[in-house]
C-alpha cells in the first residue's frame, strides 16, 4: 500500500490502473497502424474495463458463496484483490460484442488490439496479489523455493471458516504457516510470457481475431502448467 498523507492507495488497484493505461496506448497505436478509428476504441474499451471488472469480481464472488453471503459488503472491496480472469474476459468481450452489434464497431480488430493490455493486466494483478500478502494462496511445499509468509503479510489474517465450505479453506491462516509456492510469481510469469507473444501475434496476424484466440489458448495452457497445479484457491 502507498500512503500519501491521508490518502491510501492499494498496490493492486494502482498496478491494474497502470496496466489499463498502458494497454489503451498500445491498442490505439496498433489500430492507427491498421488504419482504424482509435477514438471509437477508447469509448468501447472504457466500458469493457468497467464490465470486465464487474465480471471479474462476480466470477470471484461465485467461487466463495458461503463467505460472501455472510459478508456481502466485502463483495464490493475490489481493491483488496480477488478478481477472476475468466469473468474479466467474459465481461470485456461481451462489451465489445455489444458495441459491435449495436453500433457497428469492429469486433475482432478491437479484441486483437486489446490483447497485449490483458497480458499487462495479468502481470499487474499477480504482482498486486504479491504485494497484498498471501493473496492467491500457494500449496504447501518442501522444495527450497517454498516461502513462509509472516503473520503480518498474510492476506486473510484471523479468518478460519468451517471445512464444510471447501472454497473458503484457503482463507484459514493455519494453512499459511508452512512454506508454500509463490503462485503470485508463477502467475506473473504467465503474463510475462504472453506479453511478447501477443505482440508477435499482432504482427503476424493472418486474420483478425487470430491474436485474441491464440492468447486464450496459450493462457489456458500456460496457466494449467505453471500456476494451477501449485495453487490452493480457485481462480
From TrEMBL:
**InterPro entries per record:** Lgt
One family from Pfam that matches here is LGT
Keywords tagged on the record: Cell membrane, Lipoprotein, Membrane, Transferase, Transmembrane, Transmembrane helix
Task: Give a Gene Ontology cellular component term annotated to this protein.
Answer: plasma membrane
MF term (GO), any: phosphatidylglycerol-prolipoprotein diacylglyceryl transferase activity
Q: Name one GO biological process term.
A: lipoprotein biosynthetic process
The entry's family comment says: Belongs to the Lgt family.
The name under which this protein is listed is Prolipoprotein diacylglyceryl transferase
Q: Which organism is it from?
A: Thermus islandicus
